[in-house]
Structure formats: structure tokens, C-alpha cells
User: What shape does this take?
Amino acid sequence: MIGYVTLGVSDMAKAKTFYTELLADLDAKLLLDMDRIAFIGKNMKTPMLAVCKPYNNEPNHPGNGNMVAFNPGSKELVDKFYHKAIELGAICDGEPGQRIPNQFYGAYIRDPDGNKVAFFHFG
Assistant: This one.
């Protein structure tokens, strides 16, 4: 149902590097780069992440309550992606852990632009 999610960024080169390296283990790559906006994903027919400089040329700022969540496939991979994001310059916004017993395991980071990102696994 979701085609793509867009995050506003201040430095396109830095954002493209951060997300292509972070999501490479999910077979994601830079699919389309149009200077102001770039699409990262597996292919153009599955959900993608877009990073962009805001259209109105105003500074980007993370939305309060907005978040992008990635499901890498297991609790172990949640941990792996969380630690990889931190290594790539993200800031911890909630270390990996079981949030709801037997239902939801998650970890949260803020990307270099302050956007909130989660890695999660149901179970």
C-alpha cells in the first residue's frame, strides 16, 4: 500500500550515504537521484525511502510524531541495524529491547538530520 516515505534532509550527499549504507543489508540501493530528491529501495515497484531537500527551500526539521519503521526480519537483525545506524552517525533514541512481551521488539534512532527511525520485529 505504501509507495514511499519521504524524509527532509539538510545534506543530500550525507543522507544518501547514510541510508544506502544502512539499508544495504536489506538489498536496498539508490534507485533514482534527481538532485533535490533521491529514492532508495529494492526496486521502483516496492516501498521506498525518499530523502529530499524541502521543496520550499526552507530548512528541514523532523516532524514531531513522524517516524519511519523498518522490519529487518528478526530481533537479532533489529540489534544489528540499530548498531550499524549508530556507527554511521545516528543518535540513540531507544536502545533495542522487548517493548511489549511476546509482541513487539524495537530500537529507535535519530538520523543525522534528527528524523526518528525505528527497527522492529513482531514477536
About this structure: The chain has a mean pLDDT of 96. The first strand starts at residue 4 and ends at 8. Strands lie at 4-8, 29-33, 37-41, 48-52, 68-70, 91-100, 104-110, 116-122.
